[in-house]
Input
Amino acid sequence: MIEVTQPEADRVAEVMGVKSDQFVAENLEKGIGQRMLMNAIPCRFLEVLSCTIYADRFAGCREFPALHLPGFTARYFTTRMHYARCPIIFNVLEALKKELCFFTPVLPVSV
Output
């Protein structure tokens, strides 16, 4: 979930050539306290692993996948949800597996 501010929504709406209200209605959800949220998986602005609004993306997208922020273990489930679609997450988790000597165990085969 990415929180979107009104100025961010206004900026992207302008780039897309639509009114801000239309952009919000078609692309965002209203959360608690009228917070606007980008809650689509995969993101509706993602095309062939590229962001179509990259230069104007939301602040939460700029920090994605937030591997540099504290509390990684609390966000692990969400991080794993994006493992197959985000090259950054894939590469970081694969590197962590090597560094931590994490290998999938091979079960013995009964003869």
Observations:
- The first strand starts at residue 2 and ends at 4.
- The chain has two domains: 1-63, 65-103.
